[in-house]
Design brief:
This protein is mainly beta and 153 residues long. It has a single domain, classed as Hypothetical protein, similar to alpha- acetolactate decarboxylase, domain 2 (60s Ribosomal Protein L30, Chain: A), CATH 3.30.1330.80. It contains one helix and seven strands, in the order βαββββββ. Strands 1, 2, 3, 4 and 5 form a five-stranded antiparallel β-sheet that branches. A two-stranded antiparallel sheet has the order 6-7. Strand 3 and strand 4 form a beta hairpin. This is PPC domain-containing protein.
């Protein structure tokens, strides 16, 4: 287990607007507010288009991550949460969100997975909590499929 006590900074309420790309808007929010890391206890709202991790095909290793396997949906209700780390080398945030979606046009059929991308429909509401310390970074773990896992430096 890896853990650390977090020193918290500002807390923000955010409304992402209709037609905007969710990740682009999140990156802009962090840039404008000089935020490098934090956590999102929840976000909710609608996406007109969304990609989450998923497949209907057979996988060679079903235990391995499928980050390059997007499942595409339209017109969904959502609820998600996650963390934001910072990559010092690129100067970019590294979001990691998991999300549950319900397809409005398919009897609210639900799916839950890793969020890849999405276009806001109507709005997304989010609470964002800045973490001042320790440094939250994603470190490549060779023992776990070379995933970049959250660490506290």
């Amino acid at each position: 287990m890896i853990y650390s006590e977090l020193k918290l900074g500002r807390t923000f309420g955010i409304r992402f607007e209709h037609g905007k790309d969710f990740m682009t808007e999140l990156e802009e929010f962090c840039r404008v507010n000089n935020i490098k890391q934090g956590y999102v206890p929840f976000f909710s709202g609608d996406f007109s288009e969304i990609n989450i991790v998923g497949t209907c095909g057979k996988m060679e290793n079903p235990q391995a991550p499928m980050l390059n396997s997007p499942a595409y949906f339209e017109n969904v209700e959502t609820f998600g949460c996650g963390t934001i780390a910072y990559d010092k080398e690129t100067g970019k945030i590294l979001p990691h969100f998991h999300i549950s979606i319900g397809s409005r046009l398919n009897s609210a059929t639900a799916h839950t997975s890793h969020f890849i991308s999405g276009k806001v429909q109507f709005l997304i509401e989010m609470v964002f909590v800045e973490v001042l310390s320790p440094s939250m970074e994603r470190i490549t773990d060779e023992n776990v499929f070379n995933l970049k896992l959250l660490d506290f430096i």
